[in-house]
Amino acid sequence: FDTPFQKTPPLFAAFIALQDVTIEMGPTVFLPKTHTRTAARKAFDGGIYDGRRDAMLAKARSNYALLSAGDLVMFDMRTLHAGTANQLEKGST
Fold it and tell me: In b/e form, how buried is each residue of 35-53, taking b as 16+ CB within 10 angstroms?
């Protein structure tokens, strides 16, 4: 289950790339500004059964964490994010 919006940030996370991360490797995707209590975030949190969540995700802007070795990504855990599918052959990453 997804964690609903919380007024106070409960946790921050950091990723450090140990190797270059390409789109084929299935990078993390982030939905910017979803850590705030916007109408879009309210639709996500409350729309799991009525389609509003899917509609919000379909039109949300997304950023992929395409990184070079040594890059750091630090983010508020309230930011909606997910892993994407690894498209490389087994053993390539």
Answer: beeeebbebbbeeeeeebb
pTM: 0.78
Query: Which residue is listed with tokens 């508020």?
Result: 76
Beta bridge partners of 46: none
List all residues 6 or more positions away from 34 whose beta carbon is below 8 Å from its beta carbon.
Answer: 40, 41, 44, 60, 78, 79, 80
List pLDDT tens digits, range 21-47: 999 999 999 999 888 888 888 888 888
CA distance 36 to 1: 19
